[in-house]
Amino acid sequence: MYYSFPHQWWGKVGMGAAVYASAHCILLPPSLLQPSALYSLAPYGGGYFMGNMADQRAGFKTMRESTKADWDIIVERYQPFARELPDRILGHLKLLGGDDGGFLVDRLHHSLLTATLAHKGGEDEEYVVCALLHDVGDTLGSWNHPDVSAAIVKPFVSEANHWMVEKHGIFQGYFFFDKIGLDPNMREQFRGHPHFERTARFCELYDNPAFDPAMECAPLEFFEPMVRRVFEFPKNSIYRDTCHT
Ligand SMILES: [Fe+2]
Ligand SMILES: [Fe+2]
Description:
Elements: E1 9-13, E2 17-21, H1 35-40, E3 47-48, E4 57-58, H2 68-83, H3 85-94, H4 107-120, H5 125-133, H6 145-153, H7 159-172, H8 196-207, H9 220-230, H10 240-243
Antiparallel strand pairs: 1-2, 3-4
Bound molecules: fe (ii) ion (FE2) (2 copies).
């Protein structure tokens, strides 16, 4: 590790001259303050010395040649990226707005109605957030949106809630699959599963009735703090202990 404070570190540049650098490189020679010069600094310990912690880059071109120092940089840089996940999720949810797809409400409105109903139904915060995000996969997973939505919530929710989001498409089909030439009883393949009733109930009470434009609907801002709390710490991820502090 060649840094010990958030914005200050000691290190070596080029042929080994010791340089003390701050967040603004104030002790580096002016010739080294040009961006091109900064990028040309010799790699040290695998990583490139830059003037700001936020600018540090690993030096490897293949993962096989990466070093511990490289990964110290990457793990450090990962922290702010991971903390912004709730913003990215909320931004992606907003992409569902404006596309009604022929329904009486657009996909964002449907999501908000589902979450509003779940909240009114007395469900806990994690459940309400799952209700809000159950269709968030629609934009990229247009042919398997429950899988995409479930993958997004998986590290942060219980196995029961994950399963509920993942399987809600098939369970929701109970109400309409017969109208599009599919088997409305497709969900029967899961009969007896520990989360069958939970998922059937989610669709019955919250997903199925959330298409009424006249229904009272909480705004996205109401759910934002819930999303931030639920997505604050991953419960299930192989990277949890390495990348999350
Ligand atoms: Fe859905
Ligand atoms: Fe839905």
